[in-house]
Design brief:
The protein has 337 residues and is α/β, with parallel strands linked by helices. Helix content is 28%, strand content 17%. It has eight helices and 13 strands. The strands form three sheets. Strands 3-4-6-5-8-9-12-13 form an eight-stranded mixed beta sheet, with helices on both faces.
Amino acid sequence: MSAHLPKRPIFNASAYLAAILSAAVTLTGTVAVARAPAPPPVQAEAAVPAARSATVTIREDGLVADYFAVPTTAAARASAGAVIVLGGSEGGLGGSRALARRLADEGFAAIAVSYFGEPGQSPKLDQVPIEPVGRALDWLQARPEISGPIAVMGISKGAELALLTASRDPEIRAVVLGVPSSVVWAGIDPTGGPVGSSWTSGGQPLPYVPYDMSKGFTGILNLYNDSLDVAPAEARIPVETINGPVMMISGQVDGLWPSARMAKEVEQRLKDHQFAYPVINIIYPDAGHAAFGAILPADSPALGQATYFGGTVPGLLAARADGWPRVLDFLRTALNP
């Protein structure tokens, strides 16, 4: 498949995806989860005690981001490196900002990066430039307080972008993925219009997996699984070129897309290429698309929405309670060589 790809007229698939994702809400440190029309969502920042403003707000051409330096309260455990944080298909900075703030409170300087959905950016997740991640990397490397490696952390569509950019930039030295993808997918248009690749590089669309509607629409998970079955080889992300350790967390009963299946594909490809760095692939059996993120209290009002795309409340709570400390340990090891 040529890198110069036409947009495919997949009106039905795009419309279905847009309808499902249009009511997305953002949980603290996780991805957008969609729900049918519901009461006003609980925003991520509301769940964060004593939420503080970003240390630096960046609104430049090509980089829309919020940077959180390590606060004095966490200085004793401050990491030498930093983390680039990418949210999911909700777009904007809502989810990534909340997660970056959490990481900073744990001792990791973090920059939340918007790749679509903020003012001045594309309103749809279609043909989105991957370059903001590289610009965020350059911005971090110029900060005097950061002397160690840079990691990238992404959730759902952000995990797709994180894996893609890490495979292309050796300056990214560690990767953390929540409910990841193993391929580049077609985009999503809120209007239900035709879409091409989710991503571009240098202005050119990247090879991608079109949505396979040959069986009709029998559910969003089936749509992704059926499409993955016939994915072109060139749409698979060359993860073997990543220059550092990889950690993945997914839910076995993810009802949005097959994150556990795709995490296994990433792990197998790394094994097949005798990948030189550690690979951690954790799949929680009773968790769904919200498996990744900071620990949630058992009385969180967001739990009902969090299980809309698979899993049980006990399964989600257990996944977060086990997974989040592992993520922090992974980053402390990777960013303090």
